[in-house]
Design goal:
This protein has one domain. The chain contains three helices and seven strands; from the N terminus they run αββββαβββα. Strands 1-2-3-4-5-6-7 form a seven-stranded antiparallel beta sheet, covered by helices on one side. By secondary structure, it is α+β, with helices and mostly antiparallel strands. β2 and β3 form a beta hairpin.
Amino acid sequence: MLALFEKIKSEIFTRWPDYDLMPSDDPNDGNGAVLSFVVNSEHPKGVQMSYYMDWILEVYVLPELILDETNHKSLNGRFSSRGRHFTQNGGNAFSFVTNPETRRLIGRDVLDNSGTSDLTYTPEMVVEKILEALEK
């Protein structure tokens, strides 16, 4: 997941070089990392990316990130309240996990209520999905 995390970050910062890092940035602690930033596109978007080991990758693309001063202290405290983000209109909350048997990425947009079940993704498809969400 680290390689995919870094690839997504690199693609975003290359495509949108004007961005603001948020104070909740966590350094990579070896098991995972959290990165929060605002992409200053035509409609600025808050992005928070996190991964844990080689198992979970979460990417939130939202109209606004709601942060507090404790977010930098642990991976479990990424948002002051995740629920507050899910009441926003628009945005995506992607969650991807690695199937330990097949090593494939299984993921979905948690905010998509269309009944779409979990889908299988390649790393390239994950990157493209995130970039598409930022271009909306």
